[in-house]
Amino acid sequence: MTKYIFFKTVFALAMSGGFAITAMAANDDPLTENWAPSEWGADDKAGSVNRTTPEMVLKAVGLVKQGKVATLGKVYQQDAPTFGSRGWRMTIPGLPTGGPFGPKEVIYNDEYLSTEIGQVGTQFDGPGHIGVITSKGNFFYNGRFLSDPDITAYGMGSLGVEHVAKKGFVCRGVLLDAVALRGGQLPVPKENSKDDPGIITDVDIKEMIKRQGIAEIGPGDCVFLHTGHGDIWHPSEWDSYDAAEKKKRVDLFNSGGPGFGLSACEYMAERKIILWGADTWASEAVGKGSGGENPQPFECHLNMMTKRGIWNLENLDLTQLVADKAYEFLFAWSPLKIKGGTGSPGNPIAMY
Predict the structure, then answer these.
(1) What pLDDT shows up at residue 24?
(2) What pLDDT is stored for residue 23 in this prediction?
(3) Would you give the DSSP letter of residue 298?
(4) Are strands 343-345 and 123-125 parallel, antiparallel or unpaired?
(5) Every domain of the chain and the residues it spans
(6) In this model, does residue 15 exceed pLDDT 60?
(7) What is the DSSP letter of 256?
(8) From the CB of residue 143, how many other CB atoms can be counted at a distance below 10 Å?
(9) How far is CA 254 from the centre of its chain?
């Protein structure tokens, strides 16, 4: 079986068993299947957000009927669950940091932040995040390689998240309520199978669309999955837990996650969506051996982002949308313009 290697896989395997990670065979699918240039040309750096048109935006605006707003980002804080060795460490140096100024004795505070800023909490996976080892080098979106001269330890160059941020996302948001479909919170998958209840398939997506009474997924849509797994780390309750309860929940949250299987991701790609996401840390299913429908870990990441430039938004708070049964809404958000960044934090907004 062809082996893919990329960053999340390495961390996941290390976490799951603690065993040594050995060199694996190159995967030349990106070369033999002509993943590059993308449909937007060899110079493109933004991917699927290029599908957005003024007509799509105006149509999405028409979904605002009640004047309600839901913010979908979770709180960034030091004791929240993070993947692998990542962390969020913020200090306020000085208290106050500076001043005083003038006879009015003005002072101020700043924060100092140490974190993987694009890959912690509510996070957007950009072009420089996921790649694959090929016989010609480490391949990323649109045929760029880590050996390219503009990519250094100080920034991802043409793979930087700022190229997506220049366009941003304004789209028809679609909420898929898998908790309603399954009759409860989805479990972490135990088998690499479309039959596992923790894995959402293409058939499941079609059934949810039908039950929820909304139009089919189409070009330019942003699609988000509610699994209930995110409630383990619920933003309105987190600070009420003691340290032991938080540790238990962090371990459970990071143990894997329900989510989209490859068939669902391929279906969404065929429907030409521009963004996918969920209330979990990977959006796709992470179960047995860190795999989903198949044993290969993070194959949705690879096939959606590296292959097609359809980006991913993880760790969303979808609880208000679920409570209001707001299955269609105007979605607006943009990554931060972090030059050379692999991703971005943020607080997306749904209006309905």
Answers:
(1) 59
(2) 55
(3) T
(4) antiparallel
(5) 7-78+117-351
(6) no
(7) -
(8) 16
(9) 15
